[in-house]
Amino acid sequence: MAEIKDDHAARELQNLHHLGDVQLEVKVELGRKKMSLSAVRQLHQGDILVLDVLGENFGLALNNVAFALGEVVINSERKSLRLTRFQQQETGA
């Protein structure tokens, strides 16, 4: 029985192999803030916008779908995201 499952899994991977070149939009959300239109109109270059931070973990979305959480790290003087937890995806079963 395990061999049948392995064969099925191998066929599924083979069927999805061609999708490896599909481009996705990747976004990292550091936080959000609600502001009135009048407050937005008063913003100037150099102003600091204090965000309602989501916590120590920041959201990673692929094509606007929540995918994972991560923490910001400095890697060779570049800001990066270390993935800490993957989001559970709901199935449409």
Quick recap:
By secondary structure, the protein is of the alpha+beta class.
Radius of gyration in whole Å, from Cα? 20 Å
Architecture per CATH nomenclature, i.e. the level-2 architecture = Roll
Order of helices and strands: HEEHEEEE
Main sheet strand line-up: 1-4-5-6
Q: What is the mean predicted local confidence, pLDDT?
A: 82
How much of the polypeptide forms β-strand, as a percent range?
A: 35-45%
Category by helix and strand content: alpha+beta
| Count of alpha and pi helical runs | 2
- The shape is elongated
Number of strands: 6
How far the N terminus sits from the C terminus, by CA atoms, comes to: 24 Å
CATH superfamily: SpoA-like
Could you explain how this protein is built, in words?
With 93 residues, this protein is α+β, with helices and mostly antiparallel strands. It has helices spanning 2-16, 37-41, and strands at 26-29, 31-32, 52-53, 58-62, 65-75, 78-86. The protein has a single domain (23-93), classed as Surface presentation of antigens (SPOA), CATH 2.30.330. It has 2 helices and 6 strands, in the order H-E-E-H-E-E-E-E. The longest helix has 15 residues, at 2-16. The two termini are 24 Å apart.
Features:
four-stranded antiparallel beta sheet, Surface presentation of antigens (SPOA), single chain, alpha+beta, two-stranded antiparallel ribbon, 93 residues
Write the layout of secondary structure elements.
Blueprint: H1 2-16, E1 26-29, E2 31-32, H2 37-41, E3 52-53, E4 58-62, E5 65-75, E6 78-86
Antiparallel strand pairs: 1-4, 2-3, 4-5, 5-6
